[in-house]
Design a protein that fits this description.
With 401 residues, chain A is mainly α. In chain A, 68% of the residues lie in helices and 6% in strands. Chain B has 266 residues and is an alpha/beta fold. Chain B has a single domain, classed as P-loop containing nucleotide triphosphate hydrolases (Rossmann fold). Classes of the chains: A mainly alpha (401), B alpha/beta (266).
């Protein structure tokens, strides 16, 4: 030992144990920060880019059209003069870059020269781009058809982008309908099942097996649920691609989480409440209804709504069962009879996000729609999660023990 | 000495028996918890069950209102329990009616997380009684008989969980009285209470004795001596001795009872 300091029996000493301890706590901290940073990046990225589509600079600051209109094709007319000029400059830049690549490693002066040239050209591109943006004309489908005469092709370059105009109104409505529908189905089935499992069933091997298989159901890939729903509800029951088929598919997917969580909350209720009411001459069901369910409800609702909110974000289950890539009408428009409401396909945000990000090119015209849809969806899911938390706090306040 | 006569029914012929236990064997799965118990419990008396932990006294008590039905593996091996001459394990017996007739107070006070009023009214509400005047009257009667009325009459709508431990236990007794039972089972009602609260509950037991038959399980031998008319001593699932409380405590006939009462084991 090289230390000359007076040591007491509790003084710190170097040890492998101490180093290990420090390393582990450092690693844990690092992992947590990594998670926080990536989560923060994802949320910020979507929020910043998405808010461009959702919010505007003028009152009422919210882009109502984006939230209510149906998706439309965006028709873009760009001034031809500027367009040709831009194209030629860009070609020149490409050419220069190729030249600079062909230079040998010794020719530093020549390389610098080319770089200078590229820089000036890029300056030009920037100024031209601003002019282009000022001079271009953009129309959604409706506005385009309403035009008295099309902009002159001689002066403008025409291009169009599917789904990039209008808004995502039908998708928002469809998602809300799917969520509400699947919550009602999943909650009813899930709570009934959980009541049976926790209150009525005989503990033993069979119950363990049932519980295990219910839990394992949550590990099944969502595409499998989608195909199951397609085979069962769409084809076998003959419901077609419809709202109700989607609701059932989503509900079945959310069931394992709901059953497990509900059972957990019910088993957390002290045995004394059940015994107390049974000893007063309550029947089993009375005892469950009056002295188990009300107290377990906060837990059940929170975890169930969270579960459904998570499932509602899945694309695969609704892809084959409920979602339309494009539907002009809102669900309550053009119904022949009331039941048709349930047997129509709807647009849904997750599927819409998939379509706009996978099926159309990514550029300045489509970007708004892509990020906007993702942002709105994030808000909707956040809203459901938040409401479940508020609900829990409210009910929890009522029954405390 | 007296237990050496096997066919003798403990307590027979000393009063008006309301509960008669005959050759009662009870088991959890394969392990037998109660062995061949024969005894009579008299009407409008307090009967105390004493004995060391795990001797089966609580199990036995829970047989009187069939709370053991809740335990899957519990079963009656043989024998019968008759309350007012009806075998309560008969197939014809409605457990709900039985439990209305035989109320129970638990070791851990278990008021429902509702208001004091709702706690008392619960037993009637589940029977479908909705009329406010009836409920009001019953709540007052029960709280008065549990000597709780003066303490809580101004806060009936407050949560029962805001009461002290002793008040909660007396509330549970009041709640049990609301369905007008004939017999009241108490499973160590004072084990979680301080001496003052205990004294109040014991006083209450004295009062209730006039109208109800009370069977109380207790760990506390002084309590048994204070509140009960008759005492039964259990050991390892067997009824060792049963008799007048004075006799059991002053002059136990069985050496095991004497050893337990004098504190040599248990």
């Amino acid at each position: 030992m090289d230390s000359l300091k007076p040591q007491n029996i509790f003084s710190k000493r170097r040890s492998t144990q101490g180093t290990l301890e420090a390393t582990i706590s450092g690693a844990l901290r690092l992992a947590t920060y990594l998670v926080i940073i990536s989560a923060g990046y994802i949320f910020l990225n979507i929020s910043i880019n998405g808010s461009k589509a959702v919010f505007t600079t003028e009152a009422p600051f919210i882009n109502v059209e984006f939230l209510t209109q149906k998706p439309q094709t965006l028709h873009v007319f760009e001034p031809k003069v500027i367009d040709t000029e831009l194209k030629s400059i860009k070609a020149a830049v490409v050419k220069l870059e190729a030249n600079s690549r062909n230079l040998g490693s010794g020719e530093i002066v020549a390389a610098d020269e080319i770089e200078q040239q590229i820089e000036t050209l890029e300056e030009q591109i920037k100024t031209l781009d601003i002019e282009r943006k000022a001079g271009r004309l953009m129309y959604g489908d409706d506005a385009y058809r309403a035009l008295a005469e099309e902009p002159n092709i001689e002066h403008y370059v025409y291009s169009n982008y599917a789904y990039s105009g209008g808004g995502i109104g039908p998708a928002i409505v469809g998602t809300c309908l799917l969520v509400v529908g699947s919550i009602s189905i999943a909650l009813t089935l899930g709570i009934l099942c959980a009541i049976f499992l926790s209150e009525y069933s005989t503990p033993g091997r069979t119950l363990q097996l049932i519980r295990l298989s219910v839990l394992n159901l949550s590990g099944v890939p969502s595409i499998v649920f989608g195909l199951f729903g397609f085979g069962m509800f769409v084809l076998f029951f003959g419901w077609g691609v419809s709202l109700i088929a989607g609701c059932f598919t989503l509900a079945i997917m959310a069931l394992p989480v709901i059953i497990a969580a509900s059972e957990e909350s019910m088993r957390a209720i002290p045995k004394g409440f059940r015994e107390g009411s049974l000893a007063l001459g309550a029947s089993k069901w009375t005892s469950v209804r009056t002295n188990v369910l009300p107290y377990a409800l906060p837990g059940i609702l929170t975890s169930s709504i969270m579960g459904v909110a998570r499932v509602a974000g899945e694309t695969a289950p609704i892809m084959f069962t409920a979602a339309f890539a494009l539907r002009d009408q809102l669900p309550w428009q053009g119904l022949e009879k009331p039941t048709d409401f349930f047997f129509q396909g709807v647009m849904a945000l997750p599927y819409h996000i998939y379509v706009v990000s996978a099926k159309i090119p990514q550029n300045e015209y489509t970007r708004n729609m892509q990020y906007g849809a993702a942002f709105v969806f994030l808000l909707i899911v956040g809203f459901f999660a938040l409401s479940s938390i508020i609900l829990r706090i409210k009910i929890r306040k009522k029954y405390k023990w | 000495m007296s237990t050496s006569i096997p066919s003798k029914i403990a307590g027979a012929g000393t009063g008006t028996p309301i509960i008669k236990i005959r050759d009662f064997d009870f088991a959890y799965g394969d392990s037998q918890a109660l062995f061949n118990i024969n005894m009579d419990i008299n009407e409008k008396e307090v009967t105390a069950f004493i004995g060391p932990s795990g001797c089966g006294k609580s199990t036995f008590l829970r047989c009187f209102n069939r709370m053991n039905d809740l335990i899957e593996i519990a079963r009656i091996k043989s024998g019968a329990i008759k309350i007012s001459e009806v075998n309560i394990y008969d197939k014809e017996v409605d457990v709900i009616e039985l439990r209305k007739h035989v109320g129970m107070v638990f070791q851990k006070s278990n008021p429902f997380p509702k208001s004091i009023y709702d706690n008392i009214a619960y037993g009637l509400r589940i029977q479908g009684v909705k009329k406010k005047s009836i409920l009001d009257e019953v709540v007052e009667r029960c709280l008065r008989s549990a000597a709780l009325w003066d303490e809580v009459k101004d806060r009936l709508s407050e949560s029962a969980l805001g009461m002290s431990g002793g008040q909660q236990q007396r509330l549970c007794i009041a709640r049990a009285l609301a369905v007008r039972p004939k017999i009241l089972l108490m499973d160590e009602p004072c084990s979680a209470l301080d001496p003052i609260a205990t004294a109040k509950v014991e006083e209450l037991i004295h009062e209730l004795k006039k109208d109800y038959t009370i069977v109380i399980v207790t760990h506390n031998m002084q309590q048994a001596a204070r509140v009960s008319d008759r005492t039964a001593f259990f050991y390892l699932g067997k009824l060792i001795e049963y008799g007048q409380t004075d006799q059991i405590f002053m002059n136990p006939r069985d050496p095991q009872t004497e050893a337990y009462i004098s504190g040599r084991f248990g």
